[in-house]
Fold:
Amino acid sequence: MTPAAIPATLLTGDGIGPEIVAATRSVFEALGTPFAWDEQPAGLGAAEQFGDPLPECTLESIRRTGLALKGPLTTPVDSPMRSVNVRLRETFKLYANLRPAQTLIPGGRFDDIDLVLVRENLEGFYVGYEHYVPIGDDPRAVAQGTGINTREGCRRIAEWAFDYAVRHGRKKVTIIHKANILKKLTGLFLETAYEVGERYRDRLIIEDRIVDNCAMQLVLNPWQFDVLLTTNLFGDILSDEIAGLIGGLGMAPGGNIGAHAAIFEAVHGSAPDIAGKGIANPTALLLAGAMMLDHVGQHDRAQQLRQALRDTLNIDHVRTGDLGGSASTVDYTAALVRRLNA
Ligand code: NAI
Ligand code: MG
Structure:
């Protein structure tokens, strides 16, 4: 029997958002409509219409469904607007950011990549405690930013990462930090992660690496790593790096997970340089959809979707431009739908 569609909030987002969300809608229809989408406004369009890029109706929907798929949201660098992504994570206390990077197209520069990055999603330098200090007639003579890590926050994400690693049959967790320089801020993270790790010693290898060295090791020999556990800023940077190992941002999904809600998205942003051109790769958002299916226990459908992606990319050789192909978003989506209907 087909399970009833699960209510889930859908945020179209900015830039390439509408294009990749439309693709995702079609592909999920071909999968038998596992989610009953409640489409809600967010981003630049919502800011114009409601005076807030994250209007109350959207928050209310996510509160109700506890589950969302979102397109990318633009955060202008030259405006005081706080990132809508950060606000969503804070509002729903989505403390764990899960970012897997797995090879879908064999034979690339790095083959057989199978990494999982777990990023602390609420603390560190992303708390946004920043200000300018005026000196003389320069109102912005000094810029100051404060990072906050709490023992409780470090413990929570470390437990989540180790539990994840054990549940998914992973062998090793590498804690990534900069405790040689940021001795207290990232030292607390390192120390707490090792403390929590004691309970998992019988099931996991636990080691640590300084972030700059890790960044280099990831391009020299990424296969030495398995699960990467790190703080907010380093996780943001390293997740784009590991996306680069598997063909780029068009291939990298992520989940923001808390006790009461989970929001799935692509790792990439709104890609303003290609927005509206019909060439965006929807794979990352589709893989985020597969993670969402796993999250609700629909592993068969998740596998079906991943297989359709693999077959479309590798057997049908239908690929978007970022992967060296010439398919438009619509062509690629049609090929995926054909695979799912076959
Ligand atoms: P970006 O990820 O949007 O783009 C980086 C590069 O990758 C661009 O050349 C873009 O064309 C390419 N790219 C990204 N996704 C692609 C796809 N699906 N298919 C083909 N090519 C793709 O990063 P950028 O330019 O630094 O940020 C643009 C905006 O996105 C900013 O306002 C930023 O704040 C926001 N952003 C939002 C995120 C989110 O909603 N979770 C995450 C990252 C950035
Ligand atoms: Mg990022």
